[in-house]
Specification:
The chain is α+β, with helices and mostly antiparallel strands. The chain is built from five helices and ten strands; from the N terminus they run βαββαβββαβββααβ. Strands 1, 2, 3, 4, 5, 6, 7, 8, 9 and 10 form a ten-stranded mixed sheet that branches.
């Protein structure tokens, strides 16, 4: 039995998220369907570094699976990409030790969120940016970023529909906001994320940018651990999983 690790990208536009569902097309479902064909009808379950919601994209998601087939790493990549739809692509397949786990061994993840900040809509960006037509104070948003960095209880940045049990303490090592032309990019890096956490943080920063709240309020609001006190959850299509880091890397 071998354990294989895959790095993949996908366009989440036409999927109901990563995790397999009874009703809905998912990234996991498509990959497991391809693996089932390769294994001549035998079901193979994959494990991912984490779930992404409907409409969220990934440039470097990581999964692993166990197999009793002995193919070269290049053959695995070629076979999977032949069977997968065009909006999912396997960049690399490598054999890993038996103890490796795509989710539990991850020590950091980085997400990027993109906003198209212009009055007119761009139909070619609608699935990949959040269109926001109003003015934003970038310097105020940059100042607010610093209050999220470090170790905090992020209960206030977690979806009320989340089923997570246990601590909601996470550590952000980077949060930045930059504007080039009509595009704003948020970069968020940390040791773990709660459901909708990045989208709620970005929503809060954008409210700062609109002058609806002050950067200095953020530490107090985080301490209250009340989802209702922070910003709106921005749409999924602007969010990308950019990197998953493991100890050996």
């Amino acid at each position: 039995m071998e354990k294989m690790k895959c790095t993949l990208s996908y366009d989440g536009t036409n999927y109901s998220g990563f995790q397999i569902q009874e009703n809905g097309r998912t990234i996991q479902g498509e990959i497991e369907k391809a693996l089932k064909k390769i294994h001549k009808g035998k079901s193979i379950r994959i494990q991912a570094s984490g779930r992404t919601d409907a409409g969220v994209h990934a440039r470097a998601q990581v999964i692993h699976f166990e197999t009793d087939l002995y193919l070269s790493e290049e053959s695995w990549q070629r076979a999977l990409n032949t069977l997968l739809p065009a909006d999912i692509y396997i960049h690399q397949v490598v054999e890993v030790p038996e103890f490796f786990h795509a989710r539990f061994d991850a020590i950091a993840k980085e997400y990027h969120y993109f906003v198209f900040n212009r009055k007119e809509r761009d139909v070619f960006r609608k699935n990949y940016f959040y269109h926001f037509p109003h003015a934003l104070d970038i310097e105020a948003m940059q100042a607010a970023c610093q209050y999220f960095i470090g170790e905090h209880d992020f209960t206030a940045c977690c979806s009320t529909r989340s089923t997570i049990k246990g601590s909601k303490v996470r550590t952000l090592t980077k949060l930045s906001c930059e504007k080039q032309g009509d595009e704003i990019k948020f970069v968020v890096r940390g040791n773990g994320f709660l459901q909708h956490m990045v989208r709620i943080i970005v929503g809060t920063l954008m409210e700062v940018g609109q002058g609806l709240r002050n950067p200095e309020e953020i530490p107090v609001l985080l301490e209250k651990k009340d989802r209702r006190l922070l910003g709106k959850t921005v749409p999924a299509q602007g969010l990308y999983l950019l990197e998953v880091e493991y100890p050996s890397e």
